[in-house]
Design a protein that fits this description.
Length: about 325
């Protein structure tokens, strides 16, 4: 499979979490219906027989599928009761939602909302991730993150960009979940980062649907300084623990959107990026202060919530211009 151009998503380990493989469309429909909602799959005229492969990972907040049909197909349904986000890694999807026809290619996602009818054409070469989230779970998360927010009042766009802003955050979180969900020894599978990653995934989805903040030349208000300070105090006190966006919302007493804008105004990055950089600086300081032979990079990284060695190496080198092992070896 050719590498995806989506930030943070290198692909989906289809061979590891395979739920079904075959050409029996009725069996595929029944398997998917047992997990989420019924849908009908039909082959497009004059196309080769299907070679369908479906991989599946059950999440606390929904289901994640890797899907390829091996043929051009058309997928339809009755009105759905969940949010369905389809992310092509190669090929394309053509969807009809809310009286709009859109084409999703790598770097974008097709979004269906409750009461939509699935109406999606898959190209023969299409490989896509499909995230299914029950409506009540996303609504509950939204109310906690931004009191008073009702999702049904939001104008959900049928096409979402994954290359910038909160859409990129969504893609990054989805990429980590793809790789770690099928590894029994990963921090995600062991429950160490499950909640924060799933919350980041869905909250990024919500934020991507809201208008970008307007530029402001005004200085940060005292109230803004106060709630950002409360967030910093919480991060400092709990930095060795799993911290999710909702933890910061509860600690500060403001909405997710307000918190996001406050961090961007004060630091130029959102709270998730700030927290990641905060921990990277702590790792950097610990490695510089370590006595020779007293610890390993993995030990120090785990203390600050980094359990994936390759992800740590990339982030650390981007920030400090060298690998963590190089910092440690200079002691």
């Amino acid at each position: 499979m050719s590498q995806s151009i989506i930030p943070g998503i290198d692909g989906f380990p289809m061979g590891v979490a395979t739920k079904l493989r075959g050409a029996d469309l009725m069996l595929v429909e029944q398997t998917v219906s047992d997990l989420v909602e019924p849908r009908h799959i039909s082959l497009c005229a004059k196309c080769s027989p299907a070679d369908i492969r479906i991989s599946h990972v059950a999440m606390n907040l929904g289901h994640l599928f890797g899907v390829q049909h091996g043929a051009a197909v058309h997928v339809t349904s009755q009105p759905i009761h969940s949010y369905q986000i389809m992310v092509p890694l190669r090929g394309h999807l053509i969807g009809h939602a809310r009286n709009v026809e859109v084409m999703a290619t790598p770097g974008t996602a097709l979004v269906y909302v409750p009461q939509d009818c699935l109406d999606t054409s898959w190209s023969e070469d299409c490989l896509a991730l499909v995230l299914s989230v029950p409506a009540e779970k996303l609504k509950s998360l939204a109310r906690t993150a931004q009191p008073g927010l009702e999702i049904h009042s939001m104008q959900i766009k049928p096409l979402m960009s994954l290359t910038k802003g909160s859409g990129r955050s969504f893609a990054n979180a989805l990429g980590v979940i793809c790789q770690e969900s099928v590894d029994a020894d990963s921090a995600f599978s062991r429950g160490l980062t499950t909640r924060s990653l799933e919350e980041t995934l869905l909250l990024s989805l919500l934020l991507s649907q809201q208008d970008a903040p307007r530029a402001s030349t005004a200085l940060a208000s005292p109230n803004r300084q106060a709630y950002v300070a409360r967030a910093l105090d919480y991060i400092d006190a709990h930095c060795t623990e799993e911290i999710g966006m909702l933890d910061l919302v509860r600690a500060t007493g403001v909405s997710l959107r307000t918190l996001q804008y406050g961090f961007i105004e004060q630091f130029g990055v959102g709270p998730v990026t700030y927290l990641k950089q905060f921990r990277l600086y702590r790792i950097h300081d610990a490695l510089r202060a370590a006595q020779p032979g007293s610890c390993s990079v993995g030990d120090v990284a785990a203390r600050w919530g980094f359990y994936n060695g390759s992800a740590l190496a990339r982030a650390y080198r981007n920030l400090f211009g060298e690998l963590p092992s190089a910092t440690l070896s200079r002691r």
